[in-house]
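testing teh design pipeline on a random one, pls ignore if ur not involved
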């Protein structure tokens, strides 16, 4: 037989209400005790009946559980409230975001963008800023050109000095070359003069033929 589910609503009959309260209260306390034993949980229950009677259950000391509950509530409130340092960081972050946005808008205006909302004075100030920036750019460019020209002049001077040194070395080499040729020729002549004389027979060599005598 299927058990009918009881509709959850207020019981009008006072006697039935008290009986149900007593049964459900004992069952609730029993379940709380089982939960505390099985899961090593700290549990406290406070129940007031319709007549104002107090019923309570605690797995340990009721006062300790209540104090722990109050401390936990205070910690939650402190965690939900941002600290002073966090507030300062948020304020600094917002200020930096505004400054970045302002600088970005100024850069766009310097590029000729977002000029529709500017007045005459603001446009004049923007023109002065552009002229000042252009002057600084030209000055920097001239300084760079002067540095490059100075470096090129130094390089030219160094190359001229190296070229002059090479010409001097070439003249020294050319001047020493004939002397070496003359010394070689003198050595050859001396060698030929000191060679021993050779004897040559200047007389004519005659061939004598011996003919046989007739018998």
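output:
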């Amino acid at each position: 037989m299927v058990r009918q589910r009881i509709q959850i609503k207020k019981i009008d009959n006072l006697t039935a209400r008290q009986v149900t309260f007593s049964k459900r209260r004992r069952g609730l306390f029993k379940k709380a005790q089982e939960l505390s034993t099985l899961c090593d949980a700290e549990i406290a229950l406070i129940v007031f009946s319709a007549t104002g009677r107090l019923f309570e259950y605690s797995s340990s000391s009721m006062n300790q559980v209540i104090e722990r509950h109050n401390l936990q509530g205070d910690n939650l409130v402190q965690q939900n409230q941002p600290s002073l340092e966090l507030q300062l960081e948020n304020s600094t972050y917002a200020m930096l975001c505004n400054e970045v946005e302002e600088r970005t808008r100024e850069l766009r205006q310097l590029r000729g963008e977002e000029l529709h909302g500017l007045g005459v004075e603001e446009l004049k100030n923007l023109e002065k800023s552009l002229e000042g920036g252009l002057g600084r750019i030209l000055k920097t460019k001239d300084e760079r050109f002067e540095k490059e020209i100075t470096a090129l002049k130094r390089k030219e001077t160094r190359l001229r000095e190296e070229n002059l040194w090479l010409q001097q070395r070439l003249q020294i080499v050319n001047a020493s070359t004939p002397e070496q040729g003359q010394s070689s020729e003198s050595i050859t002549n001396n060698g030929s003069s000191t060679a021993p004389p050779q004897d040559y027979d200047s007389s004519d060599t005659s061939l004598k033929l011996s003919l046989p005598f007739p018998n």
